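Checklist before submission:
- one chain only
- standard amino acids only
- sequence pasted in full

Submission:
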Amino acid sequence: MTSMPVMPRESRDWTVEDLEQLPDDGLQYELVDGVLLVSPAPVVKHQIAVGEIYALLRAAGPEHLLALFAPVDWQPDGRTSLQPDVLVIRKENLGARNVTGPLTLAVEVLSPSTRRKDLVLKRSKYEDAGVSSYWVVDPDEPSVQALDLVDGRFQVVGEAKGDDRLDLLRPFPVSLVPSALVNP
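Returned file contents:
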């Protein structure tokens, strides 16, 4: 008989090593400062937006940067493991199993089950960890809010809704239209 990990457990302080013991059951397991966060699999509209953003960033990005899409674990410390929907890193920061180096860009596509986590917990962790740029995409509206790290805090550098065009300079020059991200 195979032994499966049991949740809950005695300690509430999870580590990145603990994640390796969890089942591959289609759920998304993330950590923020030792707190385990569990989310259901994303819906189709979410995944369409993720795919379109990834394709856009992959095509526009310079040679030294690499765009990736979830599930890829970003583990900046032993008590945090997040899976941005799309992320951009310097190629030299890519590890064999995960990313531990700084993120150039983290993109979160909102869904009803992750909205609060993306807008509060993950934004705060990205900001504290020095992530250069953070985009929040709402496929239901559709809209994009782009934030850049300035003096240790995120500041809004651009917003667009519907068919409006958003031109951004960081992490590299790119233009996007929110409605095109969900209706390719």
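Reviewer check: DSSP finds four helices and twelve strands in the chain.
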